[in-house]
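Retro notes
What went well: the complex prediction finally ran end to end.
Inputs used:
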Amino acid sequence: MANSDLRIAIDCDETAIDLKKVLCDHLKKRGVHITDLDYLGQEKADYPEIGFHLAQEIQKRHYDRGILICGTGLGMAMIANKVEGVFAGTCHDVYSAERLKKSNDAQVLTMGARVIGPELAKMVVDAWLHSEFQGGGSLPKVDKMRELEHASFHRKA
Ligand code: RB5
C-alpha cells in the first residue's frame, strides 16, 4: 500500500497536545491521511483510556496505523498492546522506528513528549511510515508472537 493511502490515527494525553499538533500539521503537509481522534476533546481521560480507544480502532481496521503520544510513550505502548492483534512499540530514534515496522510489523508507534523534541519526532514518524514489514526471517517470529498472544488472550482456566 502506498504510504499516501494509509489511514493513520493519532491521539495523545494531556502531556503531548503540542507535539500532537506539530505531527498532525507535518503529516498533513506531506499528504498523509491523518485523523486526530481527540479523545480528550470528548471526555476527561488518562493515557489508558486514550491508548485503548485508538488501539481498538486499529483492531476494528478503521485505521491502518496509529500514533500515540504521552509523557514517555511507555504507558501508551503498554495499554495498546493489551488489545488483541495490535502491536505497539515506543521509539525515540529513527533506526528503531524503521525496525518497529520492518521487523516487528507494529501498527502503533508511541513516543514521549517529555523525551523527544518535535524535529526528531517528525523524523521518527516519517521513518516508521515509510517502512513496510519485510517478512522473510522476521515472519515466523511475528507469527509466533501472534500465536502466543492468541493463547494468552484465550487461555482456558
Ligand atoms: C502522565 O500521566 C504520564 O504518566 C503519562 O503521560 C505517560 O508518561 C505514561 O506512561
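What we learned: Residues 63 and 80 are 14 Å apart (CA to CA).
What to try next: split runs per interface for comparison.
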